[in-house]
Specification:
The complex is a heterodimer of chains A (515) and B (484). Chain A is of the alpha+beta class and 515 residues long. Among the domains of chain A are: 91 residues, Uridine Diphospho-n-acetylenolpyruvylglucosamine Reductase, domain 2 (2-Layer Sandwich), CATH 3.30.43; 151 residues, Uridine Diphospho-n-acetylenolpyruvylglucosamine Reductase, domain 3, CATH 3.30.465; 116 residues, 2-Layer Sandwich (Alpha-Beta Plaits), CATH 3.30.70. Chain A has an 8-stranded antiparallel beta sheet with strand order 15-12-14-13-17-18-16-19. Chain A has a 5-stranded antiparallel beta sheet with strand order 5-6-10-8-9. In chain A, a hairpin with a 5-residue loop joins strand 8 and strand 9. About 16% of the residues of chain A have low confidence. The two termini of chain B are 46 Å apart. Chain B folds into 4 domains: 88 residues, Uridine Diphospho-n-acetylenolpyruvylglucosamine Reductase, domain 2, CATH 3.30.43.10; 118 residues, Uridine Diphospho-n-acetylenolpyruvylglucosamine Reductase, domain 3 (2-Layer Sandwich), CATH 3.30.465.10; 113 residues, Alpha-Beta Plaits (2-Layer Sandwich), CATH 3.30.70.2190; 102 residues, 2-Layer Sandwich (Alpha-Beta Plaits), CATH 3.30.70. In chain B, helix 1 runs antiparallel to helix 3, helix 8 packs across helix 10 and helix 12 packs antiparallel against helix 13. Classes of the chains: A alpha+beta (515), B alpha+beta (484). At the A-B interface, strand 8, strand 9, helix 9, strand 11 and helix 11 of A face strand 5, strand 9, helix 7, helix 8 and helix 10 of B.
Chain lengths: 515, 484
C-alpha cells in the first residue's frame, strides 16, 4: 500500500497521526485519519496541515459525550486530545488550576482533592459512587457523610471525560445551582484555530476583564470554532461534609412547592434535584447541603422541617441523583420511555449497557475509544431550559407532549436552576421520539412552559422563555429531528462561525443551526 | 455630515432627546476617567429599545461611529465620545420591567442604576449581587459593558455570572436577544462573550438579571495589622482554611490616613494595614466562620479586631473603604486610580515592589485592594502643579501594571481597558491573541462603527488577512509563563 501523502503531511506535523480505525467514528461518521497531538505546538501544526489539505476536523476527548450533538457533515480527521493530559499548574493558594484539554476530570479531581480543593463541576457521566443507577444508594450510604464528587481522594467515575470535552459540551450537573456551569468557572483558555493559529484569552487570575472573553465563546461550542488545548479554572474549597434531604411529592404542583421552598430558603443549598421515573409515579425532590459538619447538620435539619412531613435525611445521594444518564431511566425502573409505558421486561436494555455495567476506576473510558460514545447513543436525552417558576407548566407540557407521542419519559434534573431532562429509552419508536420533541417545542413556543405569574408578568422580556435541546438520541431518531431547535440570534452565531472558521471545517454540522 | 442626521434623530428621539448645543455637548466630554476628554458631535437620549435600534440604523447607514453611555462612571474611558460620532445615552431607559422572585430573575432597562435593581428586589427577599462601589449611580447597561465586579465578587461573582438574557441592538441596528433568561439557552454563549466587551459589540437595551437570596446573616470584621505583609498572611490563612468570605479588603497606612482625613472612619490608630472581612450566609455557618477568621487574624498578629453584624455597624466599618478613592483627594492634589490584578499569593512581593517604586520615584502610592482576589487599586498621588509630576506618576502607574503582568496577572480586574489601557493590552496578549479577539468584533461589527478605538490598540480591519507573525508570546518571552 502506497503512503498517503495527506497522512504523511499530518504525520510530519504530529507523529501520532494515523489512518482511522472503526473506533474513531464520530456519531457514526468514519474519519480518514486520527491524530493525538502531544503538545500545543503539535496541535497547531496538525491543524495547519489539515487546513492545507482542506480536511474537516472533529476534536474529541474521552468520548463520554461524543454522541452528543449532530453527526458531523464531514469528518476527515479526528483530533484526540488525550495525549495532552497534563495538569500543568495547581496554584492552591490562589485556588486556580491550569490543565491541558486532554486531562481527565478524574485525574484533575485527584490532584485537587490532595489540597482539599475541587473544580466544582459534576457533569455527566455522574460519578457512580454518587449516582449509582443500580444499587448505588446502598453503596453510597455506607460511605457515610462524604462530600459528593468522590470524597477522601477517591476518583469519581467520569468515564474518561476530559477538561476539553467538558468545556466543549458545556456539561454541568446538579451543583450548577451553587457553582454555575463550566463557563462560570473557566478563567483562561488556549485554543487552536482552524488555520492552526494558537490564541489565548483570560489568564490565571479570577478577576480579569482584559480583552474579549473567548472562553465563554468556546464553552459549549462543540468544537465548531476551534480546538481547545488548555484551560484555567477557578477552584473552590472542598466541603467537609454533605447531606441530602429528600421528599416525595404528589404531582407537579407539590413538586414545585418543595423545589421553590428549598430554593427560596436561606439555607444555601448546593443543588436541588427533581426526579420522576414514570408518569404514574410520585415526584421525588432531593436537596444537597454542603459545608462544615456543624453547618451541614444544622441546615439539613432546618431543610427537613421546611420540606415538611415525609422529608428524610440521608448522608449519601439518592440512587437517582444526577442526570438521567444516557437516556436511561435513572433508577433501573423498567419500561420507561417505551410506547405505552410501564411494560416490564425492557430492563435488560439498561442492564446490557456495555460501558456502564461496571464501576470502573475512573479511567475505564480512556482506553476504549468509542465504547463510551456508543453507550451515549443508548437512548434519547432532552434538556429543557426554563424560568424556574415555570416548573409546573413545563412538567405539564412535557407530559402532554409525551402522552400525545405515546411515550412515558423519565423526567428530572436541576429544577431550581431551570434545567430538567426528559429521558426516553433506546427502544422507543424513533417517530414517536421526534413527535414528542416537536410537540414539546410547539408548546414552549406558545409559551406553555413560561413563568408568567400574574403577580410578575414579563411583558417585555425575551420572546420565548424556554428551550428543548436533544442532547443525544439513537441514530434513527436523530435523523428525524433538528437536535437544537430554535436558537435566538442564530445569524450572529453564523457570523461568528464564519469569522473563526471560514472554511467550515471545524466539526461541521455538529452544532445549532447546522453550524 | 453629522448635522444631516439631526432631523432624523429628532424624529426618532423627540426634541428633548437630541442635544446639539455645544455647551451641553461638552458636559458629555468625559466619563469617570477625566484625563481623557472628547466632545461628541451629537448626543441622543432614546427612550426605548426601538429608538436605540433606529438611531443605530441611521448611524450605520451614514457610516457614523457611535458610542453608548450609561451613567458615565466608567474608569477606563470606555464611554469616551467620538468627536465625529453620536453618543447614545441610556439614562432615559430606567424601567424595572419585571421582578420575578419565583424565578429569581428581574428584567430591567440598561439605564437603571445598579442599586435600584437590588431595591426593587428587596421586598421579596432578594438582591442583585454585583455591587461596584459606584452602585448608587452606575447603570446596569454599563455594568454589562464592563463586566463589573465589586467588593463582594470574591464569593458572588461578576456581572457575567448574574446575567441570563440581553436584548441588544447590533451595530447594524437590529434588535435581538442573546440568551433567553434561563441561563441554558442553546447555541454559542454570545451573552457571555458580549458581557465585558466594553460597548464594542452592540448596545444593551434590556437585561435579564439573576436575583440572589438576601443572606440570613452578614458579619463584618475589621482587623488592624502592623504591616500589609501581616495582613496578607491573615488573608492566606483564611483562604487556606477553606473559608470563602463575601469580601476581603485591605488598605495600607496611607489609604487609612486619607480615609481618616475625609470621613473620620476611626480605624485603629497607627495601623500599618487594615483588613475588612465580610462573611454572609446561613447564620450558624457565618458565626462559626467569623470566629475562625478572628482566630486566624489574631494568629497573624492582628493588633485590634472589631466585629459588626448589624447594618449600621457594618456601614461604619465600610465607610473608610468606600470613601478611599475620593479620600486621597484630601492628601494629594491629583491622583491616578490604578486597577491591576496579581495572583493573590503574589500580593506581598508586589506590594514590596510598589513601595520600592514609590521610594525610587518620590511618588506616593496609597494601596486599597480586594485582597481576596488579588485585585490591586494603587492610588498614585502627585501634585499636578509641579512640572513633570504627572508624567512621573504615569510612569509609576505603568510600572505597576508591568509588575502585574510579570506576576502572571492582569492589567485590569474590573475597570476595563477602554482608551486608558489599550496600549498595555499587547503586553498581556500577543498579536495572534488580539487578532483572534478581533474575529468576534468583525462578526458583530464589520464596519467598526460601534465604540471604535477602545480596548484594542490597532485593530486590523475586518476581512484583512493578518500577516505572518511568529514572535513568541510576550509572557513566554518574559520567561514567566509557558502558555496561559
Amino acid at each position: 500500500m502506497g503512503a498517503d501523502p495527506v497522512l504523511e503531511a499530518l504525520a510530519a506535523a504530529c507523529p501520532a497521526a494515523r489512518a482511522a480505525r472503526p473506533e474513531d467514528a464520530v456519531a457514526g461518521v468514519m474519519p480518514r485519519f486520527a491524530a493525538s497531538p502531544a503538545t500545543v505546538a503539535e496541535a497547531s501544526e496538525l491543524l495547519r496541515a489539515a487546513a492545507a489539505h482542506d480536511l474537516a476536523v472533529v476534536p474529541r476527548g474521552g468520548g463520554s459525550k461524543l454522541a452528543w450533538g449532530a453527526p458531523p457533515r464531514r469528518c476527515d480527521l479526528v483530533v484526540d486530545t488525550r495525549a495532552m493530559d497534563q495538569v500543568l499548574e495547581h496554584a492552591a493558594g490562589d485556588l486556580v488550576v491550569r490543565a491541558q484539554a486532554g486531562a481527565s476530570l478524574a485525574q484533575l479531581g485527584e490532584v485537587l482533592a490532595g489540597a482539599g480543593q475541587q473544580l466544582a463541576l459534576d457533569p455527566p457521566p455522574v460519578p457512580r459512587a454518587v449516582a449509582g443507577t443500580r444499587g448505588g444508594s446502598g453503596a453510597g450510604a455506607s460511605a457515610g457523610s462524604e462530600a459528593p464528587s468522590g470524597a477522601n481522594g477517591a476518583a469519581p467515575q467520569w468515564r474518561g471525560a476530559t477538561v476539553g470535552g467538558t468545556l466543549a459540551t458545556g456539561a454541568a450537573g446538579p451543583r450548577r445551582l451553587r457553582y454555575g456551569t463550566p463557563r462560570d468557572l473557566l478563567i483562561g483558555i488556549t485554543v487552536v484555530r482552524a488555520d492552526g493559529t494558537v490564541a489565548h484569552s483570560g489568564g490565571k487570575v479570577v478577576k480579569n476583564v482584559a480583552g474579549y472573553d473567548l472562553g465563554k465563546l468556546f464553552t459549549g461550542s462543540f468544537g465548531t470554532l476551534g480546538l481547545i488545548v488548555e484551560a484555567v479554572f477557578r477552584l473552590h474549597p472542598r466541603p467537609a461534609s454533605a447531606a441530602y434531604v429528600t421528599v416525595d411529592c404528589d404531582g407537579p404542583g407539590e413538586a414545585y412547592y418543595a423545589v421553590a421552598a428549598a430554593a427560596g430558603s436561606e439555607l444555601a443549598p448546593s443543588a436541588i434535584e427533581l426526579d420522576r421515573p414514570a408518569r404514574d409515579q410520585p415526584f421525588r425532590v432531593a436537596v444537597l447541603l454542603e459545608g462544615d459538619p456543624d453547618g451541614t447538620a444544622e441546615r439539613t435539619g432546618l431543610m427537613g422541617t421546611l420540606l415538611g412531613k415525609g422529608a428524610a435525611t440521608q448522608p449519601a445521594a439518592p440512587g437517582w441523583w444526577g442526570w438521567p444518564a444516557n437516556g436511561q431511566p435513572r433508577h433501573g425502573q423498567p419500561g420507561n420511555g417505551q410506547p405505552g409505558g410501564g411494560q416490564p421486561g425492557s430492563s435488560q436494555l439498561s442492564d446490557s449497557r456495555p460501558s456502564d455495567s461496571q464501576p470502573g476506576d475512573g479511567r475505564s473510558g480512556a482506553g476504549q475509544p468509542g465504547g463510551a460514545a456508543d453507550a451515549g447513543q443508548a437512548g434519547t436525552l432532552i434538556r429543557i431550559g426554563f424560568w424556574a417558576a415555570g416548573l409546573p407548566r413545563i412538567l405539564r407540557a412535557v407530559d402532554a407532549a409525551a402522552l400525545a407521542a405515546g411515550l412515558d419519559p423519565a423526567v428530572g434534573g436541576s429544577a431550581a436552576a431551570g434545567v430538567i431532562y426528559a429521558a426516553v429509552g433506546p427502544g422507543a419508536d424513533p417517530a414517536a421520539v421526534a413527535a414528542f420533541v416537536s410537540g414539546l417545542r410547539e408548546a414552549l413556543a406558545r409559551g406553555d412552559g413560561d413563568a408568567r405569574p400574574a403577580s410578575a408578568p414579563v411583558p417585555d422580556g425575551p420572546p420565548v422563555l424556554a428551550s428543548a435541546v436533544v442532547v443525544h438520541a439513537p441514530p434513527r431518531a436523530r435523523d428525524l429531528m433538528d437536535l437544537w431547535g430554535p436558537v435566538p440570534s442564530l445569524s450572529l452565531m453564523r457570523a461568528v462561525k464564519d469569522q473563526f472558521d471560514p472554511g467550515h471545517r471545524m466539526a461541521p454540522g455538529r452544532f445549532a443551526g447546522g453550524i | 455630515m453629522i448635522k444631516q442626521l439631526i432631523p432624523r434623530m429628532t424624529e426618532i428621539c423627540g426634541p428633548d432627546g437630541v442635544i446639539t448645543d455645544p455647551a451641553e455637548l461638552r458636559t458629555y466630554e468625559t466619563d469617570g476617567l477625566t484625563s481623557h476628554r472628547v466632545t461628541p458631535a451629537l448626543v441622543v437620549l432614546p427612550r426605548t429599545a426601538e429608538e436605540v435600534a433606529a438611531v443605530v440604523a441611521e448611524c450605520a447607514a451614514a457610516k457614523v461611529p457611535f458610542v453608548a453611555r450609561g451613567s458615565g462612571t466608567g474608569l477606563s474611558g470606555g464611554a469616551l465620545p467620538h468627536a465625529e460620532g453620536v453618543l447614545i445615552v441610556t439614562s432615559k431607559m430606567r424601567r424595572i420591567i419585571a421582578v420575578d422572585p419565583a424565578s429569581q430573575r428581574a428584567v430591567v432597562e440598561p439605564g437603571c442604576t445598579n442599586l435600584s435593581v437590588s431595591e426593587a428586589a428587596r421586598p421579596f427577599g432578594y438582591f442583585y449581587a454585583p455591587d461596584p462601589s459606584s452602585q448608587v449611580v452606575c447603570s446596569v447597561g454599563g455594568n454589562v459593558a464592563e463586566n463589573s465586579g465589586g467588593a463582594h465578587c470574591l464569593k458572588h461573582g461578576f456581572t457575567v455570572h448574574h446575567i441570563t438574557g440581553l436584548e441588544i441592538v447590533t451595530p447594524s441596528g437590529e434588535l435581538t436577544w442573546l440568551g433567553d433568561g434561563t441561563g441554558a439557552a442553546p447555541g454559542y454563549d454570545l451573552l457571555g462573550a458580549f458581557t465585558g466587551s466594553e460597548g464594542t459589540l452592540g448596545i444593551v437595551t434590556k437585561v435579564v438579571v439573576k436575583l440572589t437570596k438576601i443572606p440570613q446573616l452578614v458579619k463584618c470584621l475589621l482587623a488592624a495589622f502592623e504591616t500589609t505583609g501581616a495582613g496578607g498572611n491573615a488573608v492566606s490563612a483564611i483562604i487556606g482554611a477553606g473559608i470563602v468570605p463575601a469580601a476581603i479588603e485591605m488598605m495600607d497606612a496611607l489609604a487609612i490616613e486619607a480615609a481618616e482625613a475625609a470621613v473620620s472612619c476611626r480605624y485603629p490608630e497607627g495601623a500599618g494595614a487594615v483588613l475588612i472581612v465580610e462573611l454572609d450566609g446561613p447564620q450558624g455557618d457565618v458565626e462559626r466562620e467569623c470566629a475562625a477568621v478572628r482566630a486566624l487574624c489574631e494568629q497573624a498578629g492582628a493588633t485590634e479586631i472589631r466585629e459588626a453584624d448589624d447594618p449600621a455597624e457594618r456601614a461604619a466599618i465600610w465607610v473608610g473603604r468606600r470613601s478611599a478613592f475620593a479620600a486621597v483627594g484630601r492628601i494629594a492634589p491629583a491622583y491616578i486610580v490604578q486597577d491591576g490584578v496579581v495572583p493573590r499569593t503574589a500580593l506581598g512581593a508586589v506590594l514590596d515592589r510598589i513601595a520600592e517604586l514609590s521610594a525610587e520615584s518620590g511618588i506616593r502610592v496609597a494601596n486599597v485592594f480586594h485582597a481576596g482576589d488579588g485585585n490591586l487599586h494603587p492610588l498614585v498621588l502627585y501634585d499636578d502643579s509641579v512640572p513633570g509630576a504627572a508624567e512621573t506618576a504615569e510612569t509609576v502607574s505603568g510600572a505597576i501594571l508591568d509588575l502585574c503582568i510579570t506576576h502572571g496577572g492582569s492589567i485590569t480586574g474590573e475597570h476595563g481597558v477602554g482608551v486608558d489601557k489599550s496600549q498595555y493590552l499587547p503586553k498581556m496578549f500577543d498579536a495572534d491573541d488580539l487578532d483572534t479577539m478581533q474575529l468576534l468584533r468583525c462578526a458583530f461589527d464589520p464596519a467598526s462603527l460601534c465604540n471604535p478605538g477602545k480596548i484594542f490598540p490597532t485593530p486590523r480591519l475586518c476581512g484583512e488577512v493578518p500577516g505572518a507573525r511568529r514572535a513568541p508570546h510576550p509572557l513566554v518571552a518574559s520567561g514567566q509563563a509557558d502558555q496561559f
